[in-house]
């Protein structure tokens, strides 16, 4: 038998969970997840921060538009704050003057800081190697699990369904209805939302849609112990402006990454020893910190559209097929606004004023921009 609904969402990461949670308020929604639990891939491996000046213009607009939701989420998200103050510091060494000037020009709210000021903000930095930096005191840690589970709770409370171990094996459209087949069952609905992350183009191909050209890129991270009982709990996320490394406090340890962006096939990504060692070496050369032990390392796939901007909109050629992919490294911090925008478009409602106010442009994020 085929189970029917109003909307089928493919992908149980933050993109799929958020839009499913919001759509379920007014529709019967089925959320299909290929793995045995939602958020197994990129979402479950993200130590995300809310950084208003991170990413291309449309991503920044969606990030800022998401802030009201983060500050005052629905009751289903509980009483624990989704955000906690962290701050963001970009540091520049000689030769990166142009990069720092370009970043500052595109983000006038960033504060220019001297090496001496950097020493106060992130005390372990070897400031003799730096020419200065840029600081955003409003950078925030995001409780990724709380956010993800909150959207899934919205889905369940509204009567929607999350079905795991439901990898999509086939997609067909007939008489205005999409039928999605998994190994165990089939599901039918007039609307299909493709929130399959790194597998987004593969799902689209099954549906007969033209791929948008998604490129998954691997990002490596490690949780490390630091020598001499250094108290770094209040330090900001600190990154080289050329993105050679970044580090941030995480769960009582230091999260270190080489900020790699290696094109990768959709898969269960894993951390390679060389990438972990590279991140740690770069961090240690830039600071007075010494890693004594790596407790845990991992990798996730951050999936980008060809122009680096998110994809959010109806397919220009297939009725009832909606794209919600290409979040790159911005998927957590933009999730509320991405879901709100998609829910409005799918419900044929006007784009909320908050998007217009912050400069979100439908055409700039629509999959139609890749057509012809």
Explain this structure.
The protein has 372 residues and is α/β, with parallel strands linked by helices. The protein folds into two domains: 2-76 and 143-213 and 307-370, FAD/NAD(P)-binding domain, CATH 3.50.50.60; 88-137 and 215-304, D-Amino Acid Oxidase, subunit A, domain 2 (D-Amino Acid Oxidase, Chain A, domain 2, 2-Layer Sandwich). Helices cover 28% and strands 28% of the residues. The protein contains ten helices and 22 strands. Strands 6, 7, 8, 15, 16, 17, 18, 19 and 20 form a nine-stranded mixed β-sheet that branches. Helix 1 (14-23) links the parallel strand 2 (7-10) and strand 3. The chain is globular, with a radius of gyration of 21 Å. The model has no long low-confidence stretch (mean pLDDT 96).
The number of distinct structural domains comes to 2
Please identify the structural class as seen in this structure: alpha/beta
| Total beta strand runs | 22
- Can you identify the CATH superfamily of the largest domain? FAD/NAD(P)-binding domain
The span between the termini is 39 Å
Query: Given this structure, which CATH class of the largest domain is correct?
Result: Alpha Beta
CATH topology term of the largest domain: FAD/NAD(P)-binding domain
Mean pLDDT: 96
Cα shape: globular
- Give the second-level CATH assignment, the architecture of the largest domain: 3-Layer(bba) Sandwich
What does the main sheet amount to? 9 strands, mixed
Tell me roughly what share of residues is in helical segments: 25-40%
Q: What's the helix count?
A: 10
Low-confidence stretches: none
Strand content: 25-35%
Computed over alpha carbons, the radius of gyration is 21 Å
């Amino acid at each position: 038998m085929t189970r029917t609904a109003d909307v089928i969402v493919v992908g149980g990461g933050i993109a799929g969970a958020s839009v499913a949670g919001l759509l379920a308020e007014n529709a019967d929604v089925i959320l299909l997840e290929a793995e045995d639990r939602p958020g197994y891939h990129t979402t479950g491996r993200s130590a995300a921060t809310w950084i208003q000046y991170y990413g291309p213009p449309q991503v920044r607009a969606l990030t800022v538009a998401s802030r009201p939701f983060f500050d005052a989420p629905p009751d289903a998200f509980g009483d624990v704050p989704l955000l906690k103050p962290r701050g963001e510091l970009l540091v520049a060494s000689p030769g990166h003057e142009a990069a720092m000037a370009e970043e500052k020009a595109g983000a006038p709210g960033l504060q220019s800081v001297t090496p001496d000021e950097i020493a106060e903000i992130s005390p372990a930095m070897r400031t003799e190697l730096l020419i200065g930096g840029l600081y955003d005191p409003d950078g925030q840690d995001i409780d990724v699990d709380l956010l993800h589970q909150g959207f899934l709770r919205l889905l369940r409370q509204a009567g929607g369904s999350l079905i795991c171990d439901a990898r999509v094996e086939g997609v067909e459209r007939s008489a205005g209805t999409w039928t999605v087949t998994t190994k165990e069952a089939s599901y039918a609905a007039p609307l299909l939302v493709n929130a399959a992350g790194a597998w987004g183009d593969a799902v689209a191909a099954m549906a007969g849609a033209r791929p948008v050209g998604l490129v998954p890129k691997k990002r490596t991270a490690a949780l490390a112990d630091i020598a001499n009982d250094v108290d770094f709990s209040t330090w900001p996320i600190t990154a080289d402006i050329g993105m050679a490394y970044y580090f941030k406090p995480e769960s009582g340890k230091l999260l270190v990454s080489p900020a790699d962006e290696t094109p990768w096939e959709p898969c269960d990504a894993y951390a390679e020893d060389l990438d972990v060692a590279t991140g740690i070496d770069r961090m240690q050369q830039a600071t007075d910190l010494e890693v004594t032990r790596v407790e845990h390392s991992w990798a996730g796939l951050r999936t980008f559209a060809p122009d680096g901007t998110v994809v959010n909109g109806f397919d220009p050629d297939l009725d009832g097929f909606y794209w919600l992919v290409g979040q790159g490294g911005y998927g957590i911090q933009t999730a509320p606004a991405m879901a709100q925008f998609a829910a409005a478009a799918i419900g044929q409602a006007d784009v909320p004023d908050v998007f217009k106010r912050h400069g979100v442009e439908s055409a700039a994020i629509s999959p139609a921009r890749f057509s012809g």
